Task: structure prediction
Amino acid sequence: MTSIRALHQQLVKKERSAVEIAQEALERIQSVEPKVHSFLHVTAEKALEQAKQIDAKIAAGEAIGLLAGIPVGIKDNMCTQGIPTTCASRILQNFVPPYESTVTQKLLDAGAVTVGKTNLDEFAMGGSTETSAYQLTYNPWDVSRVPGGSSGGSAAAVAAGECTVSLGSDTGGSIRQPASFCGIVGMKPTYGLVSRYGLVAFASSLDQIGPFSRSVEDTAILLGAIAGHDPKDSTSLNVEIPDYTQFLKPDLKGKKIGVIKETFGEGLDVEVGAAVETAIQQLQSLGAEVVEISCPRFRYGIAAYYIIAPSEASANLARYDGVKYGARIPDADNLMEMYTRTRAEGFGAEVKRRIMIGTYTLSAGYYDAYYLKAQKVRTLIKQDFEAAFKQVDALVCPTVPTTAFKAGDKSADPLSMYLVDLMTIPVNLAGLPGMSVPCGFDAAGMPIGLQIIGGVLREDNVLQVGYAYEQATDWHTRSPKL
Amino acid sequence: MIDREQVQKVALLARLALEDAEIDTFTTQLNDILGYFEQLGELDTTDVEPTTRAIEVVNITRHDQRVSMSDREEILQGAPDRDGDFFKVPKIINE
Result:
């Protein structure tokens, strides 16, 4: 798979045109989609149109940016003007946004070629992309397994070579977990680094958009293109955005890395544990000082998250009322019936379950016991991380306790699906940057991911650790046979 | 713990018309999930401040200026039902 920089070189040296690159991606989509099903909508015409514009610029001798002419996939919970945005939900089946999200606008401005909108768990709620109302997406490494979720379509598309990079969103692990399952790089930036304007809200205090790619360098390039202050998002951080590629150095001399002790306990798959331990030894041989770090409240993250996220979701999803956009049942007698039946038929089981949990935990009499308690536990988890980052530059642990499971394995038991997020959730609760990089394969040939976590706005450390590790290993160079 | 009747009440608050079978399933599943939450009781949070946002930003203001977003017709076209420039809904009060 060709990197952003290599494609850029081909374009500026006029070895290939942007149209040829777009056509190659579209042909790949045609050939592998029947097996993988990453995309909900492929926007072939639009992609070729965008590519033509880049070719015209090159022909006119204009300078083009690194992302110009690069095929990208967009998770279908980011609003794209004039292109359906369904969130993989029936309730938004006919929704065509009248505006563009900030991230996709930035990509359009950078000349990126958007090949389509990718599948996800409905409203990004799930860890396997199986709650999509439209289709199942399969793992390119073994099509009987899930790609992870919720950004499973974006991860599978990059792993299958259907686009060079893609965007996902991560509320409790929805970028890092599918990146781990699909053997690619996936990063959730610091909360507020990337604008959420136009990202369909799930849990607003946790949601963050980030890149998927085949290499850490491509993630650094894409992150630089989408990060930055946006007045349209009141939680957007007003900070200087560096050139993230300057942090890509091949060694880790002088870096101190902490291993989160509590992540190596019960429930961790033996092969995953072994691969991550080997990776940690490699970090050491790259010059890093490795120490053990305790985050004693880490394991309470899941319980706190599954109160906070559904609570926020129950409020955010109250807007789907069948009035201003989206689906509506046609035969309601009165307004109340229209609301309740439109929502009952428009939402799938997992979304309804989370709306129910959130409505309950926010309801009178239970607020203190659940929501307030969870927010206080969130503070404790944050404090564990703050203490850790006084001692180290980055933390590492497995991204997921297991490799990708078989489709259908966990979909009947919601709680077992929630436990998959054990290692990724605390990072969202604390708003920190986290990235998964490939660090091995299990005996079944399924990819394993190493999670690298940085302090607030310390994407530099995360990228440096990830890049140095990647340069010393060749896991990222393997591709699934489809 | 949550019983069937409470699940029905929550469904009404959430504006979800659940079928009987769904109410049964949710009663069992919500009990499992709420049971899992009980572990939070192991942590003493007496003097702990709640965290509402991961990264705190304060006093975010903007100028009180009108900005037109997009074409009114484009927005109205997305409506399930309309009457001219209005969104149309079923009657609110039964006769």
